[in-house]
Amino acid sequence: MIIVGGSSSRDLAKEMSNILGCTYVQAATTRFPDGECYTRIDNGSLNDDVVIVQNTYPDSNLIEMFLLQDAVRKLGARHTTIVIPYFGYARQDRAFRPGEPESAKVMTKHLGMMCDRVLTVDIHKESILDYFECPHTDLKAAPAIAGHFTGKNIDLVLSPDVGAKDRAKAIGEMMEVPYDHLEKVRLSGSEVRISPAGMDCKGKNILIVDDMISTGGTIVAAKHALKEAGASSVSVACTHGLFVNNALERLTGNALEAVLCCNTLENEVSHISVAEIISDALNDKR
Ligand code: R5P
Q1: Alpha carbon of 48 to ligand 1 centroid (Å)
Q2: pLDDT in tens, 27-57
Q3: What are the Cα distances from residue 20, in Å, to 2, 16, 32, 164, 260?
Q4: Which of 184, 202, 227, 285 is catalytic?
Q5: Strands laid side by side in the 205-213 sheet
Q6: Domains of the chain
Q7: Given ligand 1 and candidates 91, 184, 210, which is best to mutate, with the most ligand atoms within 8 Å of its CB?
Q8: pTM of the entire structure?
Q9: Which of 57, 86, 158, 213 for mutating ligand 1's site (highest number of atoms within 8 Å of CB)?
Q10: pLDDT tens for residues 142-157?
């Protein structure tokens, strides 16, 4: 097996190759002066099972993924797996208004044209993967998050909304601490209202878990609601730390005990690694 690291996921791809004991090849990706993507894989041949690790967010990374898929084929890849740690456009899984595209379906259709298998991590809507005609699996980051926080004095694990309650359940059970969910109402793209809906938060060290943090609005609102309800401390962990519009600064300046995310998106707080979870899934295939 040969692991090719795209520019979005070099550290993760390297870590996976160390775990799997296989060759790591870094794609030499740069930009042309006009901003278009240039990439090259400096290997004479890739006559093996090839795994490309690359996000499809932002759009520039999606283009790089397409180009890498073509490059590995031309170098003789026998079987191509694409690992998409963070799958962009997963929240646009249907046309919400007439005239809108089904963005997620467009992405899967095109990505699926040049690969034999797809692995994602905590994709926002798992049903999107069914648009792929090749085998596909969405891996769960819950064991990595639970492993990180076990023994760190957490009394309660909460999801910010009912839609994510299964994640809180999985992590709570692995950590052997109680879990529940908050009530969330979205007011706008960046504003939400959150309430603990009568749960007992007094004096508790609470861990909020979510699939992603984008603007940080959800977490800020959750933290205020929990503090008002008497929580002693509030930590937060998500799989994908997008942190748009200085959200990370906003969160770290908000008296949260800890803000952490997985290395599906590499940034200064992506200290929870999903390399082992992805490597185990790749090993299953061998
Ligand atoms: C919503 O369904 C997601 O799970 C996240 O809670 C949401 O995308 C977070 O967005 P933001 O950080 O902008 O509140």
Answers
A1: 39
A2: 999 999 999 999 999 988 899 999 999 999 9
A3: 10, 6, 34, 31, 25
A4: 184
A5: 179-181, 156-159, 205-213, 233-241, 258-261
A6: 2-140+274-284 (3.40.50.2020), 142-261 (3.40.50.2020)
A7: 210
A8: 0.94
A9: 213
A10: 999 999 999 999 999 9
